[in-house]
Write a structure and sequence with these properties.
The chain is an alpha/beta fold. It has one domain: Spore Coat Polysaccharide Biosynthesis Protein SpsA, Chain A. Helix content is 31%, strand content 23%. The chain has a seven-stranded mixed β-sheet, with helices on both faces. The longest helix is centred in the middle third of the chain and has 12 residues. It is globular, with a radius of gyration of 16 Å.
Length: 195
């Protein structure tokens, strides 16, 4: 899709998974990162991964602020990365969401355009899913302020402070925003793939 870059957040601690880096955890014989890349790459112009280059490859952008807690540092690191194109928007997804819809970017792009918003975020079953969101790159200074000055680590304050819109994703048999955070979640994802 023209005018949209993508970032996969893959720099988290993986502490609940009990592994060093969950992006390498296998689901149906492929890494979680491979699953998410295959879903997001066709939907964006340029794809980067926020994670350790030694693990995530040459398209990886490490966290710009070591020791920062929360996913906001991953978004910020991507927004200021020289690996991005001149696209106006950045689609962000987590590395542990292998069931992401094939039309996610198109739906959020339509929503952000209609609302002339800064951020378009998915809402599924009434719950906001901020790690599945589309950000206008003009928000970079606000993200920097939240991270460096206010010392925030999550997305909720920015979703409240900036012009945000929400897309209510229709309910499906398999939750397309299912996150794999534990070994039990990984086993459940294997089961869901068979449905």
């Amino acid at each position: 899709m023209n005018n949209i870059d993508g970032v996969i957040l893959a720099a988290g601690q993986s502490s609940r998974m009990g592994v060093a880096n969950k992006v390498q955890s296998l689901l149906a014989g492929r890494s979680l990162l491979d699953h998410v890349c295959a879903k997001l790459e066709p939907q964006v112009d340029r794809l980067i991964i926020n994670g350790q280059p030694a693990i995530c490859g040459e398209n990886a952008v490490a966290d710009i602020i070591e020791g920062a807690k929360g996913p906001l540092v991953g978004l910020y690191s991507a927004l200021i990365s020289e690996q991005l194109s001149a696209a106006e928007f950045l689609m962000m997804v987590p590395c542990d969401g292998p069931f992401m819809p094939d039309n996610l970017v198109a739906e959020l792009y339509r929503e952000i355009q209609l609302a002339d918003a800064d951020i378009a975020c998915v809402r599924y079953q009434g719950i906001a899913q901020p790690t599945f969101s589309l950000w206008h790159k003009r928000v970079t200074p606000a993200v920097e302020q939240a991270l460096l000055v206010k010392k925030q680590g999550g997305f909720k304050p920015l979703l409240e402070d900036l012009n945000s819109c929400f897309f209510n994703w229709p309910e499906q048999a398999v939750n397309p925003f299912f996150n794999i955070n534990t070994a039990d979640d990984l086993a459940e994802a294997e089961r869901l793939l068979c449905l």
